[in-house]
Every structure is written in structure tokens, then in C-alpha cells.
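Quick sanity check, TATA box-binding protein-associated factor RNA polymerase I subunit B:
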Amino acid sequence: MDEEDTRDFNERCAQCSEVNWGLTDGGRFYCRSCHNVTERTREVVNTDFITNSRVQTISKSLRKQEKNDGGCEWYICEGFQLVLKKQAEALEALGVCPQMKDEILCNFWRCYLQKSKQAYCKRPAGETVKALSVCESSTDVDSDPERPSLLHLLSLSESEGDLQTDCSFASSVTKVSESTSVYSGSVDGSLYLMKNQKEKLRMTMPMTLSFCYMALLWLREPITLSELLRFVVEGHIPYLNVFQHFPEKMNLCGLDLRIFCVESWPVYEEVFNKMHELAAFLDLPRFPDITDSCFLHPDMLCMKYLMEANLPDELHNWTCRVVKKIGIGEVDFLTLMPGNKSTRKVKYDVLAAAIIVVVLKLLFLLDDHYEWLLSEFAEERNKNNTEGGPYFEFKKWYEVVKQSLDVEQKKLDEERAKYLWRCEKPLFYSVKNKPKVLKRRQMVVNLQNQFGKLSGSVRRAEKPNPSSFQLNWSEENTDGSCFHGHSLKGVLQEKCGLLTAMNPDYWLCTVKLCNEKLCGHLAHYREVEFPQSYHFVLGLFAFLLRIQPSYIHDE
């Protein structure tokens, strides 16, 4: 049927230049090769209405008919599409390339819907009854490889993320959903949670961040995963309580809250691993090359973290030497190749932090003894030094950075302790309880305002603008708190025309390896087993990346 309808449409696809068109349920042409949807629609030749004929598609106005409770029919897939849309818009406001939302992220999302058989797939005749029987008789509703398609996707940029749905199947699923004992505002909320946990990548809130990071990595944007998660925690990117941005007619209640209501911070490892699973699941090609001019290259990231950690600029020459020596700056090592199990999954920000730690161990050993001896030597030389920049003193650097780090860490802990997980928009598990919940919420707000006036509490200040740097050190300060221009002459010596470290020793972090095959770690990090200076350096970069020190220790 599609071949007859698309026979006269011979334009090449703007994305892949192929001529291989199909039709969505909404009448739009889409490319079967790259899944790109055009704005062109099929012209209807015969518009006569035939009685007793089954309606194949349904328009927005018909499908979005208001129910008795004033809401409209919506699907979990639509909810996640709205979340992705809001997150993409927030990233665009932060300066990300505008094509991320409507080209890269949108195509990733379309491909996911097709691979997961939610859209862009054919529904053979008679599959409706078969699918419903599976829903009623089994909890694994996706066990059938030929499960019919529920949705047809429009662009992420379109209003409210509308999706075209087959009328007869939507009404049938609605009846099944309404017959279940557990209530949800969406059409498929109860069925969505009945799915088998081992199925193909069921969409979750952390996976929305995996989608965003995958799009950022494809565009080679100067945002690392740790920065993305930090912007989420700081509220610059919608994630926590993002359902507050849903339209009023999309009633979110009951089981929907278990899907969209987040009560924990996003975890680095989970988002990172899901991103790689997604890339392999979507059968994506090799990502654009990470070259030495890209922000994600170790040489670039090391420069950034050296500045933020208030370390001497001369250390960058040493980090570059380490990167070149062990070959971790090569394009093939850094570029993501989905599905290739022989290539390493690179955590660009963690890798850069680990390189700096290795260089500090090469020069200062970090054994709670040698670095202090070097610091005393540099202090004596600085007293008599009248030419050039001052020698770098590890002890003085430790005292200055530790003081700032303690202040920032305390501020972060207080902000997390004061964070209100309950959103401003009231939540309810049943439409019948909605008036009571709204009335109770209004009473709480009124009481809070009254007690606030009596106690003279100050309203929370507006969030500061997001920044890539959490610790700032200015060379203009006269108190000597900035170490960027300090010299490493006190820890280096010249041999055969090359500067080498005076320290001849080095200790390994993996003397005691982990024997558990399913652990996934080379060695476990226990603070008591390592020097305190080494622990401090790990803690500093762990704070900057908002991850556990053990991640950097593993790297």
C-alpha cells in the first residue's frame, strides 16, 4: 500500500539522499533508510466518506478528546518525549548547537521508538486482538516480536510532543488499562510497568540524560558527562520534578508517578553505561572523531582541570607527555564505536583527572613524606629567589586549596540537605482526591508564607548562572593564593638536555587486585590503605567531577 502511495514522490531525502519513502499514519512521508520525517504529506484524491468503513488514522483533535476528568489521552512515550524536549531546550539555552534538538536528538529518539517497536513499524492485520490477549494473560507484553505499533512520532519541536495513534487499538488498550485495578493517568501506564525488566532498554528518567549525553558526544560539544549531571543537580537542566512542565490536560497520577517522579540524584555510572547500551541498541555508526583539537581530548581537559585545581601551568607539558607515551590521545582510542566490545569505553573527564593524578605521583610521589621534603626545599629557595616566578610549594598549595574545598563542600552539603524533593505542583494518585489535595496544598503554602513573615526568613536567592568552573583562582590576587604561574624547577632536573623528575620512585595503585570476576573493578579503594596526600588529591577531583574517589582511583 505504501509503495502505491509513494510512487509519485521522487524527491531525495535531505539527510541521506536516498529515495525510499514510506507513509506515517498521519499521512507524512518518512525515509525508510534514515527515518527522517518530512513536512510533505500525501495528497488525498478521493475524499468521499464511505459508511461503515474503519477509520485508519485519527487526528490530534479527535484523538485528544477530553475525558470525563478534563484530561486527555496520552502515552508514557509522549511523556518522555516532552522531557527530552525540555532538556534539549535547556541545553540549547546553555549554548549547545541548535541542531542538537531537531536533528541529532530527534533522530536518535525516532530510531529508538522504531527499534523498540513503539513507532515506525508495520502492524499486520489481526495483531490487535493478539496484542490484547498478551496484555491480559502475561506480564511480559513485549515478548511477542511482532507487537503492533502504538505510536507515530512527530518532531520534538512540535507542540506538546503529539503522537499519532491508531484509533481502534488506542481505544482497546484504554479499555484494558481502565479494567486494571491500579490507576494511572496515562493510557499505558499500568501496562508499561508490567513489562519484563530484561526487555530491550525500557525508557527511564536516567535514560533521558543518556540520550542527551549521546547527542552531545555526537556533536563533540564542550560538555562532559560530569558537567551535564552537575547542571541537572543545580537545576539548569530539567530532570527532578520535570513533570511540572507537562500540560495541564496530561493528568499525571497513580503509576505515572513511579515512572516520572525522581527522588534521587542521577548516578554517573548508570547514565554512562546506559548511553553505551543505547548506542549499541540503535546500531549507530562510528561517532565523529575525537581529535586533539576537540574539547574532550585529554590534553584539552587536563588543561581545564589543572586550572580549576590551582596547579602550575607547567604540569600541562607533563600530562601531554603521559598521554603521548601511553597512546591514550589516539583518535581510535577516544572515538566511540557502538557495539565494538574490543574498544574501551572512555570516560573523558575521569580519564583526564586520572592523568593529572599520575603526573603528581611521578613528580611528588604522594607518599606523605617525599612531597613535604620537596615543599621545604622549595620554601627555602623562594626566600632567596629574586628572579623568575616562585617555586611551587606543595604544602602551601595543599593549605590554600583545602581551605577553599572545605568551604565549597560544606556549602554543597547544606544545599543538598535543604533540597525540597516535593515539587510545587501537587501530586495525587486518584482524580477523586484531586480537590482535597489541591486544598491541602494551598493551606500548606499559606501557612508557610505566614510563618515566613513572622520569623523574618529570607527567600532563597535566584540560581547563579551555570559555569564550567566551580573553583576560580585569579592571578591578580596579591595574597599568593594562585599557583598557575609557579615553577616546577624545585622538583625537576636536567639530564641529556631533557627535564626529568628528581623523584626516581613510583608506587602502584593496584598492588592488591580484586579477584571477583563479577565485580567490574581492578582494585577497591579504601582510604586507610593509601597516603593522605593521595586521598586529598583524589577527593579534590572527585568534588570537581561530583563522583566517588574510587572512580578516579580505578582509572
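Posting the structure with no commentary besides this: Confidence is low (pLDDT under 50) at residues 45-65, 124-181.
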